[in-house]
What does this fold into?
Amino acid sequence: MKFLHTSDWHLGRSFHRVNLLAAQSAFVDHLVEAVREHEVDAVLVAGDVYDRAVPPLPAVDLFDRALHRLADLGVPTVMISGNHDSARRLGVGAGLIGRAGIHLRTDPAGCADPVVLADVHGDVALYGLPYLEPALVKDEFAAPKVSHEAVLGAAMDRIRADLAGRAPGTRSVVLAHAFVTGGQASDSERDIAVGGVEAVPASVFDGVDYAALGHLHGCQTINERVRYSGSPLAYSFSEADHRKTMWLVELGAAGEITAERIDTPVPRPLARLRGRLEELLDDPALADHEDSWVEATLTDAVRPQDPMARLAGRFPHTLSLAFEPEGRAEDGPASYARRLKGRSDQEIAEDFVAHVRGGGADEAERAVLRGAFDEVRVLTAREDHGREGAR
It folds into this structure.
């Protein structure tokens, strides 16, 4: 049985204020064509369909058209909600849409209710495990504590129990949206840390034949049976070196896995350039980047006149400009922003404590900070959930 594994469409997202709707539409075209060309048996979409809980109307329209086109193919699609999605909004009409072969799995309580497909070798159970916010689903799964590992492990126990009750030889696939240990993050994923910890071990998926993961934007293989498809488009310059793809996965008679990557359309390549302004403007080796989206970091000792306009003369698609003068002490807004890049809220708060007090936070104080950040995130999730219920 062949699956096309994709995730993290982030419909409605822009790239440094560049509207990506046309590029996202081109990806949907490519997806539909790949399903036809490779005679795929099912499409797996592992969360973050939208970029935010209340997506813009053009993104909703694109999603609607994508669903109609997938349904017209007669190929089942299993889709879960991610941490960027509103699970309740994405899941509206799931029962009705399921009759058309589009199976939306957004309710954690239904994680052990699979979509069952069959081939000449028997049944394949596809379980959709939406993003699990630990504080909101701990009671549902009777998890021993509020953590990603605890709730995901409890949900997987339900799935394994359901699988054990099925016919011998039933193969299994799980879609999940999580940060698995060993995965490489980029700058464009939203932090999902709880108590300072966000990663779960790959062993949580033991017992299933394939785990189709979403959340991390780089395509990567955690192990043969646990893979991220990555996002189909780049959403930050930290993804400049990514090869954007989908996984074409074939599940054999005994659960063996073969997988190959299918490239997705690139609307425009990314380039991260660094150097003095005159060097960037004159270097013939940079000619290949003249049509790229460019992030430029200038290292001139003195800030040049009109740097963005001059850069745009050679690189008309320059979107980001930063200054990091060579030899200058590590202070000022630019270097401060660089120090913050890639750091969690918890780490930034601890750095602030150390800065204003002259000494770092102790373990008790770090626990207070972790609790505060966790509470804010959970309160935000609950408020979103409440607002949806009131509509």
About this structure: DSSP finds eleven helices and 19 strands in the chain. The CA atoms of residues 187 and 340 lie 12 Å apart.
